[in-house]
Amino acid sequence: MGQTKKDVKEQFGKSAESYVESKLHKEGKDLQKLLDITSITGNEEVLDIATGGGHTANAFAPNVKSVTALDLTKEMLVAAEKFILGNGHKNVQFVEGDAENLPFSDEVFDIVTCRIAPHHFPNIRAFISEVNRVLKRNGQFLLDDNVVPEAIAFDEFYNTIEKIRDYSHFRAWKKSEWLQMLEESGFEVQEWHRFEKVFIFEPWCNRMNLLDVEKDRLTSYILNASDEIKVKFAIKAENNCVVSFKGEAVVLKALKKH
Predict the structure, then answer these.
(1) What is the pTM of this model?
(2) Measured between alpha carbons, how far is residue 36 from residues 18, 31, 55, 63, 145 in Å?
(3) In this structure, are residues 26 and 115 in contact, taking their beta carbons and an 8 Å threshold?
(4) 75 CB neighbour count, 10 Å cutoff
(5) Distance (Å, whole) CA 113 – CA 115
(6) How close are the terminal C-alpha atoms of the chain, in Å?
């Protein structure tokens, strides 16, 4: 297992409960949008990759035949199972596994979802290839993740602050990179939506159990950013403390064509 994946297991193993309770993950309007753009008859078998706190699996469970919730981190699966079973859903199974090497046969799922996770995957093309492999022909891939603006300076700023905050962060991709990678891997992007996300600095840091020294480093980096970056990311600060900033995410539906 590579270092990034070890970092993910360590980081999310100790943060599992906080992700179940995270407002950003639990109540985000992006979750409803994922459901809205999915074609569902009720007979689908769904795979939710990197299920995290289980919010996506939980949202799909009452609308489909079955959901398989997969995560690299055992503690996350335990927290997700407690959350989903607590909501009365009995058609969800929980599997420990790697997004870049899925433990499933070819063409077994009607729908694959992955929400707020691919920025942790060190080999994004292997992940996309695996999604394609396990999906049935014309199956739906529902992707939801943070992205970066196209400009290099903005890209570098956002990925740097995420890496300082969370050493298991690998890369948030540009919108254009997602479209290119999906199309090159045999998907046809049918629909996509851009969301602005407001990150409240303190809970954003605390979810990763940041030490004060790391929080100070992050604060300093953000406050010393250029005026252009401060405007782009709508950085709000008071008394030399960061209050909040804005990022962006995309929600999209792609169909497996070959």
Answers:
(1) 0.91
(2) 27, 9, 15, 12, 16
(3) no
(4) 16
(5) 7
(6) 30
Is there a contact between 61 and 92 (Cβ–Cβ < 8 Å)?
Answer: yes
Tens of pLDDT along the chain (258 residues) come to 666 566 555 665 555 565 556 554 456 788 999 999 999 999 999 999 999 999 999 999 999 999 999 999 999 999 999 999 999 999 999 999 999 999 999 999 999 999 999 999 999 999 999 999 999 999 999 999 999 999 999 999 999 999 999 999 999 999 999 999 999 999 999 999 999 999 999 999 998 889 999 999 999 999 999 999 999 999 999 999 999 999 999 999 999 999
How far apart CA 112 and CA 125 sit, in angstroms, is 16
Q: What single letter denotes the amino acid at residue 137?
A: R
Which amino acid would we find at residue 129? Answer: S
Could you tell me how far CA 248 lies from the centroid of its own chain? 12
Q: How many CB atoms lie within 10 A of CB 142?
A: 23
Q: In the 3-class helix/strand/coil scheme, how is 16-78 assigned residue by residue?
A: HHHHHHCHHHHCCHHHHHHHHHCCCCCCCEEEEECCCCCHHHHHHHHHCCEEEEEECCHHHHH
What domains sit in the chain, N to C, each tagged with a CATH number? Answer: 3-150+168-198+247-256 (3.40.50.150)
What span, in angstroms and rounded, lies between the C-alpha atoms of 157 and 150? 12
